């Protein structure tokens, strides 16, 4: 357009500034800003000024955003909202809260979008006290007390702050819920290991006549693994088949494999795994992890070899899982082969958790001389924890020299 000699209108500039925020195209945004100054278009034009603040904030140029914001001759709740939204996206929570307070001190009442933004920030940084104050404000504002998006943000804020009792109270008292409200609550329960509560509220959700989304199903399958709730997991599986949701959906398929495996239904897990139309290292890992948890070591080692034969390279989580299995079943030779693989993978050779698992595997296999050699050669290790594990292994077989070395390095 510019090459054709056409000058952008204000409407065009607003559109392109939005494109700049989407693409993080700060240079282009700065060019438009310079042109607008040159044309005198910024004077008394709050809309274009707000769009520029939004662009700078979302392109991580927060100093420029704040400077421009304070240069605006007129401001409203939208221009105020652009600034904390930018802070929120780039995890500068304290600055965002200060900005929110400054906005209120200037006499601007937050709109729904601003409440949603600031509640998200409170949840992200654990600012529970501030979140509770905002909750009190919202309760006094009839307009927002029934706003489903604000309500969902409020529930999410309490849950992220780890205040699960308050989360339940707020959820139960609120006048409106939708699928997002329920899924938010269920997800936070699962994240805090409260599988039983998640399953209880899932039953309530169904009684309300709401159909679970894929996101809800993924969450509840995780709750089933936490609680060993195989029956509920099978119900969800049957519903997903009925709705045709399993076709070409590797994520939900993997979650089902994980649920069956961790609920000790290993035959069903393996059967479903082989029915998946597409598989990746995560779905392979779900099966392996199930075998590992239920001490079916030989099956797990076979599964690991099958995975590699299919051309899938293990990730860090898979290496940790298989090294644990090797240690548990005393598969020293297999463990040594995996050690050789890890040395060749620079990405994992410096991974502290993989390294710890490697040393732990050798110690469990009773290969104490090799354990010490590996410990000395590896580029990183959690010294105290590993030495104490090493010392425990030495105690079991009465190896005093290596035990003394381990204690001396703990």
UniProtKB/TrEMBL annotation:
<dbReference type="Pfam" id="PF13041">
    <property type="entry name" value="PPR_2"/>
</dbReference>
<dbReference type="Pfam" id="PF01535">
    <property type="entry name" value="PPR"/>
</dbReference>
<protein>
    <recommendedName>
        <fullName>Pentatricopeptide repeat-containing protein</fullName>
    </recommendedName>
</protein>
<feature type="repeat" description="PPR">
    <location>
        <begin position="76"/>
        <end position="110"/>
    </location>
</feature>
<feature type="repeat" description="PPR">
    <location>
        <begin position="280"/>
        <end position="314"/>
    </location>
</feature>
<feature type="repeat" description="PPR">
    <location>
        <begin position="178"/>
        <end position="212"/>
    </location>
</feature>
<dbReference type="InterPro" id="IPR050421">
    <property type="entry name" value="PPR"/>
</dbReference>
<dbReference type="InterPro" id="IPR011990">
    <property type="entry name" value="TPR-like_helical_dom_sf"/>
</dbReference>
<keyword id="KW-0677">Repeat</keyword>
<dbReference type="InterPro" id="IPR002885">
    <property type="entry name" value="PPR_rpt"/>
</dbReference>
């Amino acid at each position: 357009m510019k090459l054709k000699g056409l000058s952008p209108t204000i409407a065009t500039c607003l559109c392109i500034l939005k494109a700049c925020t989407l693409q993080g195209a700060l240079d282009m945004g700065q060019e438009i800003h310079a042109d607008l100054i040159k044309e005198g278009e910024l004077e008394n034009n709050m809309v274009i000024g707000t769009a520029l603040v939004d662009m700078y904030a979302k392109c991580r140029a927060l100093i420029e955003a704040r400077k421009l914001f304070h240069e605006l001759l007129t401001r409203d709740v939208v221009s105020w909202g652009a600034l904390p939204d930018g802070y929120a996206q780039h995890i500068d929570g304290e600055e965002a809260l200060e900005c929110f307070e400054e906005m209120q001190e200037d006499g601007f009442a937050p709109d729904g979008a601003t409440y949603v933004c600031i509640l998200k920030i409170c949840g992200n940084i654990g600012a529970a006290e501030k979140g509770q104050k905002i909750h009190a404000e919202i309760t006094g504002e009839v307009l927002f007390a029934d706003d489903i998006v604000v309500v969902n943000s409020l529930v999410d804020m309490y849950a992220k702050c780890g205040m699960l009792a308050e989360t339940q109270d707020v959820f139960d008292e609120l006048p409106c819920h939708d699928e997002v409200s329920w899924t938010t609550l269920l997800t936070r329960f699962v994240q805090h290991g409260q599988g039983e509560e998640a399953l209880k509220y899932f039953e309530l959700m169904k009684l309300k006549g709401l159909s679970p989304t894929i996101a809800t199903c993924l969450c509840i399958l995780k709750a089933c693994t936490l609680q060993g709730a195989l029956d509920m997991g099978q119900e969800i599986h049957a519903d997903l088949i009925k709705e045709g949701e399993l076709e070409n959906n590797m994520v939900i398929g993997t979650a089902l494999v994980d649920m069956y495996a961790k609920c000790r239904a290993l035959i069903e897990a393996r059967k479903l795994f082989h029915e998946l139309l597409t598989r990746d290292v995560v779905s392979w890992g779900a099966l392996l992890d199930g075998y590992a948890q239920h001490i079916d070591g030989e099956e797990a080692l076979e599964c690991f070899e099958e995975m590699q034969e299919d051309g899938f390279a293990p990730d860090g989580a898979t290496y940790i899982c298989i090294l644990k299995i090797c240690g548990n079943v005393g598969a020293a030779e297999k463990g040594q082969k995996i050690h050789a693989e890890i040395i060749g993978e620079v990405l994992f050779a410096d991974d502290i958790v993989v390294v710890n698992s490697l040393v732990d595997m050798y110690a469990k296999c009773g290969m104490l001389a090799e354990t010490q050699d590996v410990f000395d050669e590896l580029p990183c290790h959690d010294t105290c924890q590993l030495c104490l594990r090493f010392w425990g292994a030495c105690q079991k077989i009465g190896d005093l020299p290596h035990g003394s070395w381990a204690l001396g390095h703990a």
